[in-house]
TrEMBL record:
Organism: Xiphophorus maculatus (Southern platyfish)
Family named by the database record: Belongs to the Deltex family.
Chain segments carrying region Disordered: 1-23
PANTHER family: DELTEX-RELATED (PTHR12622)
PROSITE patterns, sorted: ZF_RING_1, ZF_RING_2
GO cellular component: cytoplasm
EC number per UniProt: 2.3.2.27
Single GO MF descriptor: zinc ion binding
Protein name: E3 ubiquitin-protein ligase
InterPro entries: Deltex_C, Deltex_C_sf, Deltex_fam, Znf_C3HC4_RING-type, Znf_RING, Znf_RING/FYVE/PHD, Znf_RING_CS
Record's subcellular location: Cytoplasm
Stretch forming the signal peptide: none
Source species taxonomy: Eukaryota, Metazoa, Chordata, Craniata, Vertebrata
SUPFAM superfamilies noted in UniProt: RING/U-box
Amino acid sequence: MMTHSTQNREKSAGKGTTGDKKDDKCPICLSDFTNKMQLKCYHAFCKQCLQNAVKALGPICPICKDVFGVMKGNQPDGKITCNKYQSSLPGFPGCGYICITYDIPSGKQTENHPKPGQYYGGTVRQAFLPDNKEGNEVLLLLKKAFDQKLIFTVGASRTTGADNMVTWNDIHHKTSISGGPECYGYPDENYLSRVKEELKAKGIQ
């Protein structure tokens, strides 16, 4: 966990204490600090309060949402493969497209899942990116997110409502080639920038 001492904070230009008495209170428990810990974003918390927040939210500052560690999800084991095609996606003429295939087999939930010991249904999903510079950048970021088990989770299916299923987490994918945003497809000129922001919020950039 990356932290800074109070002394380092005061030495940092523009990052010194403000003199406000609120700076002497933990923003989580609203009490005096106990074993004060300060993050690289300069927000400080009681050690136990921060540990509880990390358990609930991951290594994210509860105040500014800055990521200070490697986020790990509860995505079950699986594999990712990619293929490239010459035809173009709507809105991206002049380049081909990339088809990503995620394959997550069925299995038994672990202690990291909502119902340990129960079986979950697997899934095979496809997603599409333009085969240009930015599309390939997003592909590398998605592969990193997959390795950190952040693409999928186990829960209720958003389409069928069935429980104990592998389902998308909160990193949006284009699962259709066409149809626009309403059909999770293209054209959507802002999609690549949006998904990069979603990945950045999880410390992947």
